[in-house]
Amino acid sequence: MSSSSQPETAIVVGSGIIGIACAHYLSKAGLQVTVIDRNSLAGACSHGNCGYICPSHVLPLTEPGAFRTALKSLFTPHAPFRVKPRFSPPLWNWMWQFARRCNHRQMLASGKHLKTILDSSMTEYRRLIVDEQLDCEWKEQGLLYVLQTEKGMHEFSQTDQILSDHFGVKAQCINGADLPAFDPALKQDLAGAFHYPEDASVRPDLLNSQWVARLKQNGVKFIENCELQGLSKSAGRITQLKTSCGVMDAHRFVFATGAWSPQISAELDCRIPIQPGKGYSITMQRPTPCPQYPMLFPEHKVGVSPFQNGYRLGSMMEFSGYDTSIPEHRIAQLRKSAEPYLIAPSTENAQETWFGWRPMTWDSLPIIGRTPRLMNAYLATGHNMLGMSLATATGKLIAELIQGKPTHIDANPFSPTRF
Ligand SMILES: Cc1cc2nc3c(=O)[nH]c(=O)nc-3n(C[C@H](O)[C@H](O)[C@H](O)COP(=O)(O)OP(=O)(O)OC[C@H]3O[C@@H](n4cnc5c(N)ncnc54)[C@H](O)[C@@H]3O)c2cc1C
Questions:
Q1: Average of pLDDT values for 270-287?
Q2: What pLDDT, on a 0 to 100 scale, did the predictor assign at position 322?
Q3: Among 41, 116, 217, 306, which residue has the least CB neighbours within 10 Å?
Q4: Is 351 helix (H, G, I), strand (E, B) or coil?
Q5: Which among 49, 121, 307, 367 is the best mutation to test ligand 1's pocket, defined by most ligand atoms within 8 Å of the CB?
Q6: Which residues contact 212 (CB under 8 A, 6 or more apart)?
Q7: % of the chain residues with pLDDT over 70
Q8: What pTM, to 2 d.p., does this model score?
Q9: What are phi and psi of 314, to 5 degrees?
């Protein structure tokens, strides 16, 4: 910490859920915090996602068979998990590293690390929502994984067994015949479901805006439309940020730049192997009947998020670079994917169609910690499909590392030095 009477200062680059969480914990630790974003606040991947805070998602993307699915998708444009064929050495290197990790042993090893940070995040969220009185549709109803076919039920029961045996994540198994009583929005003829009662959900845009408002009240400064363009460095430290709003200095710098993080890798003199994993969502008026539970349909890879004043379907994982299009066929596919499961799968008019780039690492673990060559530069990125779920523990870890305190969980598996 600063030796003078002036408080230590920190700049957080990126105002997604991860930047917001870092600002929160740094501010609580007594630092004077400024958050900058090149666009509007929390307007990127943290805006239109499904909003699950899900400790049940311990199993990483690097599971046996995932690479085969990726390869097949080269030739199936409508696959929910899709690698678009294109010449991109960073993408093919990423895929090679990803492929090497798609085995049972690595899946369990990564899952162990994810479980620790997921559990810590959940504990922190429970405290945060109450302490800061965030009115963001926080619900602890659990998450329902619904299976259409007996084959799907059989395959998912193997996943459930791994979750239970290796991670102590327990579900209630529900017969298809009992599903309409569990959630009357579900159809009659489904094979069954698994309910993970420990999961929670939020409306992501509300969480972001409420949390930002609270932080502003507590003295955190947010600057929109302010792009990081370069760094000034001296003696192994960042001295200034060059931004579209002028130069800025601080004692510490946190880079929470999501899927864009590789673009600052050279400046930070640090490998940041992230690929954008594009997903889509459509937000509509609530159908009748509207699901009561947040749900996932693993066979169609689609998520359903009922909100107080809306209803969202979200899905897909496309490795197609920084492509900003929202093809109509993808949105139509989202609507169609919910049809086998729900009595009223969608409503006519969309309130919003959206895409977001998930920051995907090849080992499915986030990148949290100090960069190897710059003493006052920290990365908080690479949260894959779990940025909402992992935000609080990430912010807490960053604040602990910056203060030089012992960390509440082992930070080594997430270190930027592992690449
Ligand atoms: C369809 C879909 C559903 C999902 N559902 C869930 C879910 O249910 N639960 C869950 O846990 N996760 C979910 N996710 C994943 C989650 O949304 C992401 O992991 C998370 O939003 C990443 O947050 P972030 O803050 O790292 O990135 P972002 O929210 O993308 O924020 C990064 C910010 O950095 C800014 N930035 C970048 N470069 C610069 C620069 N040079 N200068 C200034 N600013 C810069 C950007 O403008 C952006 O605002 C989902 C994702 C998708 C696509």
A1: 97
A2: 95
A3: 217
A4: strand
A5: 49
A6: 15, 20, 41, 42, 222
A7: 99
A8: 0.97
A9: -140, 145
| Residue-level pLDDT at 70 | 74
Contacts of 221 (CB under 8 A, 6+ apart): 33, 34, 35
Report the residue among 15, 45, 57 best suited for mutation to probe ligand 1: largest number of ligand atoms under 8 A from its CB. 45
Atom of ligand 1 nearest to the CA of 19: 25
Residue with CA at minimum distance from ligand 1 atom 50: 49
CA of 42 to the centre of ligand 1 (A): 8
Ligand 1 binding site (Cβ under 6 Å of any ligand atom): 13-19, 36-39, 43-46, 49-52, 227-228, 256-260, 279, 281, 314, 356, 358-359, 381, 383, 385-389
H or E element that contains 221: strand 221-223
Mean pLDDT, the chain, integer: 95
Q: At what angle do helices 150-167 and 104-131 cross, to 10 degrees?
A: 80
The CB density around residue 30, as the number of other CB atoms within 10 Å, is 13
Q: Choose one of 11, 36, 37 to mutate for the ligand 1 pocket test, by most ligand atoms within 8 angstroms of C-beta.
A: 37
Closest residue CA from atom 4 of ligand 1: 49
Which residues are CB-contacts of 115 (< 8 A; sequence separation ≥ 6)?
A: 55, 58, 167, 169
Structure tokens at 149: 């076919």
What are the tens digits of pLDDT across the range 91-110? 999 999 999 999 999 999 99
* pLDDT band, residue 1 (cuts 50/70/90): very low
Check pLDDT > 50 for residue 396: yes
- The H-or-E segment that residue 97 falls in is helix 89-101
What pLDDT does 112 receive? 97
Gap from CA of 16 to ligand 1 centroid (Å): 5
Residue with CA at minimum distance from ligand 1 atom 1: 279
In 3D space, the residue among 107, 174, 115, 190 whose CA is nearest the CA of residue 393 turns out to be 115
| Distance in angstroms (rounded) separating the CA atoms of residues 66 and 277 | 14
Neighbour order of strands in the sheet with 237-243? 228-234, 237-243, 246-248
